[in-house]
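Hi all, posting the design record for the shared folder.

TITLE: backbone redesign
STEP: 1 of 1
STRUCTURE INPUT:
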């Protein structure tokens, strides 16, 4: 998704608290904590415009899951149109609709982005493949890596004839 954001298919927004939580969760699943920390520092440097601040006062007014109120508050302050998350249940429509914010699973989000601008998304996929030099990765290998979490997106990419 970040490679696609670099091509300006869409813009990302997050807070430091969101990045810290994401980093912690990734580290729980993978043993290479130092590499993960470097990756998140790279993300911070690569997308300085994505950082949302000044949302904390809104947190208590958010009606979604208490542990994710900071996410919705940051989305409101950052003027996000969509929250992309695997935790759809933490963001009920009644909590997000007053702010005109949609909540989408990553698969739905990527599929919709492909539908909006296939050419730009295809370019982003090609750029992502270029990141894998040693060893190189084929489009099919990349899609197999993404398949579990984004099956509809992978299907639409395959059917496009890309690669």
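Okay, here is what came back for every position:
SEQUENCE:
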């Amino acid at each position: 998704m970040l490679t696609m954001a670099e091509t300006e298919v869409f813009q990302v927004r997050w807070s430091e608290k969101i990045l810290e939580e994401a980093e912690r969760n990734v580290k729980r699943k993978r043993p290479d904590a130092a590499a993960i920390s470097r990756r998140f520092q790279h993300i911070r440097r690569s997308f300085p415009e994505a950082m949302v601040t000044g949302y904390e006062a809104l947190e208590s007014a958010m009606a979604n899951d208490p542990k994710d109120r900071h996410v919705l508050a940051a989305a409101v302050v950052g003027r996000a149109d969509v929250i992309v998350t695997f935790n759809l249940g933490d963001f009920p429509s009644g909590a997000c609709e007053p702010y005109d914010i949609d909540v989408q699973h990553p698969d739905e989000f990527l599929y919709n982005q492909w539908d909006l601008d296939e050419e730009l998304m295809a370019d982003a996929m090609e750029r992502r493949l270029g990141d894998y030099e040693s060893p190189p990765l084929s489009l099919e290998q990349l899609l197999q890596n993404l398949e579990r979490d984004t099956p509809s997106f992978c299907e639409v990419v395959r059917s496009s004839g890309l690669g």
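COMMENT: The longest helix spans residues 16-29.
Let me know if anyone wants the other runs.
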